[in-house]
Amino acid sequence: MKPGLRSSRDYDVTMATETESPEIAREAWRVHAASYLQAGFVTAAATTDEGFLRPQIDRAWGSNVTYYLATERATGRPVATIRKVPLGGDGVAALPAYEHCEASLAPSGRQLLHDLSRSGELTHEVAALASLGAPDAMYELVRRVILDGRRRRETWFVGLVESTRTVLEARLGRTNFVSVGRPSPIVAEGVPSSVRLVPTVIRCDGFVERIEQCVHEARGPAALRLERTLAAYRNGQAPIVLATDAAGDGRFQPGGDDVVPIAPPAARSSA
Question: Fewest CB atoms within 10 A around its CB: which of 48, 49, 182, 203?
Answer without folding.
Answer: 49
